[in-house]
Please model this.
Amino acid sequence: MARLLKLSLNLCLIFCLFSCKTKREKAEESYNFGVTNFGQGSAGSMNGIARAIEIDSTYEQAVYELSVAYLKRGLPHKWKEQYDKAVPLDSVTRIPWRGYLYLWFYRDYKKAIADFDASDSVTPNFVDQPQGHSVDYWRGIAYLGLKDYDNSILYFDKYINQEIAESGEDWVELTAFLYRGIAYYESGDYEKARYNFNKRLEHGRNLSADAKYYLALIAQKESNIQLAEELINAAIYEFKQGYFNNRPYVETLRQIYLEDLLLLKVELTL
Model:
């Protein structure tokens, strides 16, 4: 009888050890069920994530992921409210990432820059890399959006020079050359603009409808119509092959369209 009682107690203890889960473990189960079995932003996914937050309100990944659904549904007020709850749970990650979202989904360049600047204070002596790129690179784009060409060029210089020093010019993100070229082009420095567009082509297998479009514009301004026609014809061909700057979900900054290229081609033949 004593042995049976002891065995029963041991079994109960084992069962308890394996069945008793922490709040975080339960929250993770609910989160994983929602994101694994349902599409991002769907009701099933959101319900699973929301349940995870109910179980453990400090589960940062769930708090953040719920904001993503609102973002992709085009509900900025709900996205902001939810996202801001994730910031104090992981400010190192979420502040620069919020800047990235302000930049691309809301075109709020000033708020984007404010978050990129804040990330420098949160992580001094470290360059944050939201979405895999330096905040200096993103700042260059944000300042271009504001048409603040001096600061745009300054941050592209900072990003490009650091990449070259650490890894070599081949490691520079190609659009950094493109956007720095656009900043120079729009500020009227065609020689430096041409240098950057050629760098974009040099490191991109000579394939870029954007770079050749801008080079054609420069050739047009310099009255070199024959070169401009050659460049715009190449740009049209490469655009149709898919070699142009674009982004998922949203239009990229200074995105070109086939109509832009065709219009320039017509202008050159008039």
